[in-house]
Design goal:
The two termini are 42 Å apart. The protein has 123 residues and is mainly alpha-helical. Among the domains are: 28-74, no CATH class; 89-121, no CATH class. It has helices at residues 28-38, 41-53, 59-74, 94-104, 109-115. It contains five helices and no strands.
């Protein structure tokens, strides 16, 4: 439970226009923890590789280790959204894109397809 903007009971610090709240950057303790964790990078990678190659490890452990290694070496795979029947999305207005995004966020993909606007009526 947080406070809403403008709430008179909000004990937060008030900042003037153009001011930021963290003028000194990250706390030194956080920087030190990150530096200490980086000293284990090689060992952590070796551990992940060992788990991935271990035939006695569970399949889920091996897959998790393989994914972790791939993501560290190549980055996470890009996530894509398939749009069917919307033509070139570069020609859609912001409002039309928001409708499509809202429909895609529905729990059921079938309902999202039903609620998506007719592309012939968008432009």
């Amino acid at each position: 439970m947080g406070f809403k903007k403008g709430d008179p009971n909000n004990p937060g610090v008030k900042f003037g226009q153009g001011q930021i709240g963290n003028t000194r950057g990250r706390r030194p303790e956080i920087i030190e923890v990150a530096k200490a964790a980086r000293t284990y990078t090689a060992e952590a990678l070796e551990t992940l590789a060992r788990i991935m190659r271990d035939a006695k490890a569970t399949a889920s452990a091996r897959v998790s280790a393989a994914i972790a290694l791939l993501e560290r070496g190549h980055g996470k795979a890009p996530q894509t959204i398939e749009l069917h029947g919307h033509g070139d999305i570069r020609n859609l207005t912001d409002e039309q894109l928001l409708v499509i995004i809202g429909a895609a966020a529905e729990p059921s993909g079938d309902r999202a397809a039903e609620q998506a606007p007719d592309p012939t009526k968008l432009n």
